[in-house]
């Protein structure tokens, strides 16, 4: 009967799992080592096998048409127990193995030699073994070469693990890069596109308007009397009002529209494939939604109004001229009494 120390067995299994080798497909590099082991030891069979919780699983299985066997009465588990080379010249002459299912039934094993696969921190996670259907022996050179090949299996595993870690790090790096790109393009308070990102989108879309002659509109939206709002209720409620605006704007505009925070309490919205009348309808819907949806704080329910300038992009008008005209239009909307939408003209 094999006695297993549960603590070190758990550590051994953890060491094995760290390689993520179990249940991976066969690979030429491992098959080659098994072939070399069989050649050196002059046997028809060789295994690279890992001793899992309740099974032995073969990464390479030369001459044996199996991928795994139950761990119960595994011959290889004996190699781990004695922590070194195990040679069984004739299984039928060895009381420990004479009744083994692989000895008493197909493939009727007679000869076995195995060495442990040892991790750099001393855990034995499997074996490299050779087997024959006739009794046999292993000379010193063969034994040394079998041990050398077992070390090569471990080098391969270490390399495999290093590659996997590198791939994981590259994946993490890609993810971080994506997150940073999103952060760099986002206004931290409202989560809308920041001025730089909006400008980029606007430039790209303007090029499209010039080449495809598709209609597109731009809205410049400024919250009315926001300084007063801040002064009266505090900067914190002012911030909440900006977030409130952004939340409503996301609901009112289409997913294909781009909303950007242009500065303080000023926002720009790009509406692709939208003519002036449709853009005016959306701008008015935004003003109505704001009028119906107060900013809620513990003590107040505050209604915000906005002034909006609207302009249709024209291929023959430069972007800077468009933005200047839009800014002037917004200024007029403020001058005329605020809480309104004015069309540039
Ligand atoms: N709470 C808060 N306030 C901001 C933020 N950015 C800008 N502001 C404030 O927004 C106010 C804008 O004031 P003004 O440019 O005078 O405009 P206004 O009071 O809205 O007046 P009109 O635009 O003419 O209706 C200033 O008091 C800024 O401090 C912000 O991120 N949070």
Automatic annotation (TrEMBL):
Enzyme class: transferase
Superkingdom of this protein's organism: Bacteria
Reaction catalyzed: 2 GTP = 3',3'-c-di-GMP + 2 diphosphate
GO terms classed as biological process: cell adhesion involved in single-species biofilm formation; negative regulation of bacterial-type flagellum-dependent cell motility
Cofactor: Mg(2+)
Annotated TM spans: none
Gene3D superfamilies assigned: 3.30.450.40, 3.30.70.270
A Pfam family recorded for this sequence: GGDEF
Listed GO CC annotations: plasma membrane
UniProt GO MF annotations: diguanylate cyclase activity
Entry EC no(s): 2.7.7.65
GGDEF domain sequence ranges: 214-345
Descriptive protein name: diguanylate cyclase
């Amino acid at each position: 009967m094999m006695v297993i120390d549960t603590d070190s067995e758990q550590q051994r299994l953890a060491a094995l799992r760290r390689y993520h080798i179990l249940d991976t497909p066969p690979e030429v590099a491992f098959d080659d080592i098994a072939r070399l082991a069989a050649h050196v030891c002059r046997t028809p069979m060789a295994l690279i096998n890992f001793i899992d919780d309740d099974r032995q699983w073969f990464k390479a299985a030369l001459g044996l048409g199996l991928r795994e066997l139950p761990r119960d009465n595994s011959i290889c588990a004996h190699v781990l127990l004695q922590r070194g080379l195990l040679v069984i010249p004739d299984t039928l002459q060895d009381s420990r193995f004479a009744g083994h299912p692989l000895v008493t039934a197909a493939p009727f094993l007679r000869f076995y030699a195995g060495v442990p696969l040892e991790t750099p921190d001393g855990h034995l996670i499997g074996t490299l073994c050779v087997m024959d259907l006739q009794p046999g022996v292993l000379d010193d050179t063969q034994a040394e070469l079998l041990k050398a090949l077992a070390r090569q299996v471990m080098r391969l595993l270490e390399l495999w693990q290093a590659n996997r870690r590198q791939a994981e790090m590259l994946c993490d790096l890609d993810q971080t890069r994506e997150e940073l790109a999103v952060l760099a393009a986002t206004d931290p308070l409202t989560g809308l596109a920041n001025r730089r990102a909006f400008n980029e989108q606007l430039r790209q879309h303007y090029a499209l308007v010039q080449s495809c002659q598709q209609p597109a509109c731009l809205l410049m939206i400024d919250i009315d009397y926001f300084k007063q709002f801040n002064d009266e209720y505090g900067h914190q409620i002012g911030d909440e009002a900006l977030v409130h605006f952004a939340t409503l704007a996301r609901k009112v505009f289409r997913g294909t529209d781009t909303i950007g925070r242009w500065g303080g309490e000023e926002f720009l919205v790009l509406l692709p494939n939208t003519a002036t009348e449709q853009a005016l309808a959306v701008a008015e819907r935004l003003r109505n939604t704001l009028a119906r949806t107060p900013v809620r704080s513990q003590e107040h329910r505050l209604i915000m109004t906005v002034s909006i300038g609207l302009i249709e992009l024209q291929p023959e008008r430069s972007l800077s001229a468009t933005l200047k005209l839009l800014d002037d239009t917004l200024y007029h909307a403020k001058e005329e009494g605020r809480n309104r939408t004015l069309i540039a003209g």
